[in-house]
Amino acid sequence: MADTFNYRIDHHGSLVRPVTLPAPGDDPEALRDAVKEAVALQRSVRSTVVTDGDFPRDDFRGAVLGTVRGFRRASGDGPDGLPRWVAESLPKADGPLLADWAARLTELTVIAPKVSLPSPAYLAALTFDESLAAGGGPASARELGEALAEIIRAEIGLLVARGVRLIQLNNPLLLAQVAADPAAPGALSFEDALAVDARTVLLDERPEGVRTGLCPGWAAPAAVDRARVERLYGEIPADRWILPYDQGTAAELDLLRALPEDRDVCLGVVDATTARLEEIDTVLARIDAAAEVKDIEDMALAPSRGFADMADRPLLGAGDQRRKLVLVETLARYCWGNEF
User: Fold this and answer.
1) What is the pTM of this model?
2) Distances from the Cα of 265 to the Cαs of 4, 49, 111, in angstroms?
3) According to DSSP H, which parts of 89-225 are helical?
4) Residue 340 has what pLDDT?
């Protein structure tokens, strides 16, 4: 893709919140100041994308679960380790999900903002509760996913209209479903998940420079089923695939090897779950191996996942996060020089 370099130094979107920042919604002025500081951090580490750090939300799913009618918080955690939510009815959006925050970001930086959203298939798989169907809940996970797909697709159109040029959908369940011995987490089948997420990235209009990306998981399985991986890439027409690439496993390279030539890839080359910094030569050797199967001009680099999928459960401290982001920038300079 001709303008991949515009987003060469990437990250997933969620950042470590300042420890003094109140819960989302408690102090709007403090929240705006924190987002402004997050933008300054991203510019200081020369990121080519800018997000709001997910600071306005309790977790990375909050853009939907916290704004769309039809969901309620249930007791305990779900199979993904995050607080459990259930769909009591088909969802309805009363207004923009993230577009207002994206518009604020454009006032803070000349870089077009990036927005990350949970994929509709991911949300449907984990929030569908068959026991609620008789009381007005969705009749199936597929029905719930399709309703969410329409909401999120409409939001993507609004985001693009407001200047967003890179939109990332996150579905952490998909890589488990392309494993050589696939798991079936949640209530949505692999086939239904592909169909639902495919509906979301089909934009009616695509202004120059707009990219829709999909992250299918934070870590590669032990081994992948090539046929299922090819179905994943073939049926979801995302421009950009955000893939784990921080462990140096054969499965990580297999995921990349199956990617069609006309798709961009963002490689998660540093581990966002540990403070230890990777050896530059080790990571560069992995990138060299990737370049043997994929044109390096169609690549970007990032950490392996977000740094704080939940506001109150950061994976690293703020200082370690900064060092990881600086390392991604350093690796990008080794790969592409100063063409940013």
Assistant:
1) 0.93
2) 9, 15, 20
3) 99-108, 120-127, 141-161, 174-177, 190-200
4) 53
